[in-house]
Design goal:
binds magnesium ion, Deoxyuridine 5'-triphosphate nucleotidohydrolase, 4-stranded antiparallel β-sheet, binds deoxyuridine-5'-triphosphate, mainly beta, nucleotide metabolism, globular
């Protein structure tokens, strides 16, 4: 049986434009998880260089949600440019300018950007607040203390 897709209502996020030259975040296609964030600066990243880049935007993410700043795969694949602190966390209470902590991982080539270039994407998600409670004992599980490759993997590395 074919069922109609569930359409989730959009979460309203107020945006304050600090720079009129920069567009609001926008989804390139219906169904995209990330809304593109644009550069408010013209700049060049030398090989290995990183920079905190202005987006020209401040925003009001509703309580109970978070904005996660993800890299764009095209920039990473074509130029080796990605986020240093990926994904960046935009807290709901943050009212400052959203900035992008970018790095050029290409060992040989510099890359230049213009105002308005799409540099990263904002994924908005609900968040659950934890109540951290100290206990004497943790429950047993099949995984137990196994981690950091305990299930194997990387066959070529043995
Ligand atoms: O890529 C990012 C990551 C963070 N922020 C802003 C929004 C976020 O709410 C705030 C704090 O981020 P985070 O908690 O990751 O940084 P911190 O080093 O823990 O700083 P703080 O002590 O201010 O929490 O900085 C950005 O603009 N871009
Ligand atoms: Mg913090």
């Amino acid at each position: 049986m074919v069922t109609a897709p569930v359409v989730t209502a959009a979460v309203r996020i107020g945006i304050k434009r600090l720079d009129p030259a920069v567009p609001l975040p926008s989804y390139a296609h219906p169904g995209d998880a990330g809304a593109d964030l644009h550069s408010a600066e013209e700049f060049t990243l030398q090989p290995g260089e990183r920079k905190l880049v202005k987006t020209g935007l401040a925003m009001e993410i509703p309580d109970g949600y978070v904005g996660l700043v993800h890299p764009r795969s095209g920039l990473a694949a074509r130029h080796g440019v990605t986020g240093v602190n990926s994904p960046g966390t935009i807290d709901s209470g943050y009212r400052g300018e959203v900035k992008l902590n970018l790095i050029n991982l290409d060992p040989d080539h510099a890359v230049s950007f213009a105002v308005g270039d799409r540099l990263a994407q904002l994924v908005v998600q609900p968040v659950v607040r934890a109540e951290f409670t100290e206990v004497d004992q943790l429950s047993d599980t099949p995984r137990g203390h196994g981690g950091h490759g305990s299930t194997g993997g990387h066959d070529s590395l043995g």
